[in-house]
Amino acid sequence: GKVSSDVKFQGKQLNRFAANSQWKQAIDFLRASGSVDVVLWKTALMACSNAMRAEEAYKLHAEMVAKGIEPTTDTFNSAMSACAKGDRSDLAQRLYREMEEAGCEKNEKTFGLYAQALGKGGQWEALEELVGALKKQGFSKSMAIYGALMRAYFEGNMPEKSLELFDEMSDLGIRPNFSAYYNGIMAAKALRDPKRCQALFEELLEVDPGRVTSREYTIVMASVGHAGDLREAFQLFEDMKKNNIRPNSYTYNALMNVCGKSGKWQKALELLDEMLMHGIQPNEQSFLACCMACERARELKLVMRLRNEMYGLGIEPGDRLQELFERVALKLQESNSNQRRYDY
Asked: Whole-model pTM above 0.90?
């Protein structure tokens, strides 16, 4: 009874550490407990994963095995998750080999995490080998696997491969889920293909409208807006509000950016005023977008007014915005100097 009670207490404590990404506290607590319960070790590994501590997770898993605790699919997956999040494809490959040597069964989660780690690490040959092996093993119609591979290629800066997989799913009769659509939309945006981006978004609105948030609307607005279709970007903005999805600072920033690049500096300033009116706090990026728009339009005095407004809200400029302020101040100084010489 006491042993069972101790394990429950230790499990609760480790779960708290994992939930708060407190990897060091989790490892120290586990070692102090002297526990050989594999579930507790898995929880400590999850703490490392949540904190993106790949090397610590790999070493902890090796320490577990050295203590004679038999690894499981779940412990390998937890360590693999840390490697994927921590951009350590080398450690992920080691774990994958060790998993085979230990005779642990791999599942969809294993393949997905491994694919993600390989993609982020740019290990394309290994990723292609994995895709081929999965097809041979009968995973060719797994939505989870396709979703993971799409994400892997996108995060590895190969959006065209991500979209190829999306199309391949359709050919195989696999119904894409929300994540697949999201990755497809992101890939189309990265490829500067606003029509495909919007088409995928419209499909998503039909198949899973309840999960669409301001994030997805913002991505598509930015895509069509940067392609020069400002009217369509604002139509999406209005549609979003009609669907009771509240825009956030990222939404406004995206629109202000495309307004500035289209020479619509007045519209960018209207959006900034609208943000404040609706109680949405602008950030440094909001002012950067508006100031860049005004600088392009040679509305230099407006830039300085925006600077004062930003400081009044307690927002500090980043390096890029600070450089813009200094550049505009110098231009105004030169302009005033030239005007004085002219008057003289």
From this structure: no
